[in-house]
Amino acid sequence: MAVMTTPVHAGTGLTTITLDSFEGVTGHIVGPNWTRIKQLQKNFQKTFPGFDFAAEYEDGAFSFTLASIPAAVAYLNATIGLEIAMANEAIRTNPDFAGAVIGKGGKGLRNIEASLGNNCTIYHDYGAFYVKFKWDTPTTERAKTLQSVKEAIFGRTDWLEERLSDASSSDAGSVESAETVADSEASDVSQLSELFSEMSPTPSEAHYE
Question: Residue 10: how many CA atoms within 13 Å on its side-chain side?
Fold first, then answer.
């Protein structure tokens, strides 16, 4: 996953790493009072004695300035870089089934979260699903959980597509109808879009707890 660009400032020996990010998920990434960044700076200083990095968020993007040391760039890329990328990664599925995945009042998403230990928040915006994590969630755990979320969402969508396909190719009286396939989450396929008004927070509405 490519998450950062690393242009070198000529004559300064410094590199600036930048990455676009929804403003609403910033708090989940950096933590209260930028605790996650401060923690990462301490770890960075131990890993690269005598060096540090500067971080800021402005105009919808994070920027990190540090010495042009490949290993140091790779270190940030594999930690905060991946965390930012995962917070902004769009999980896109067939939009016809998004409402059924979300569930009434977000019940479908809450069920997925509960099955994963409830260490994340899944929400839908801009035609895709996104995942938020608490700021102190380890990078490796985020990656594992994100993969599980994708599998759950894609699995649910595939199941709905298969059942609706079966329903449309069989006699109405011999198979489950589209209404039954959607279960209690919606009365029919045309109503799935109405559930969008009860979604989880959007990126612009999200805030850390």
Answer: 0
At 126 the pLDDT is 84
Given this model, what pLDDT does residue 96 score? 87
Asked whether residue 100 falls in the same domain as residue 192, the answer is yes
Q: State how far the alpha carbon of 2 is from the alpha carbons of 74, 81, 111, 179, in Å.
A: 11, 9, 31, 41
Rounded CA-CA distance 8/146 in Å is 32
Residue 191 has pLDDT above 90, yes or no: no
By residue count, the chain amounts to 209
125 and 109: one domain?
Answer: yes
Closest CA to 92 of 118, 139, 47, 127: 127
pTM of the model: 0.75
Residue 2 lies in a domain: no
Continuous H helices in the chain: 26-30, 35-47, 70-78, 80-87, 98-102, 107-115, 139-168, 178-181
Report d(CA 162, CA 164) in Å as an integer. Answer: 6
Q: Residue 103: inside a domain, yes or no?
A: yes
| Helix (DSSP H) and strand (DSSP E) numbers for the chain | 8, 6
In this prediction, residues 91-97 reach a mean pLDDT of: 90
Q: Could you give the CA distance from residue 51 to residue 67 in angstroms, rounded to a whole number?
A: 7
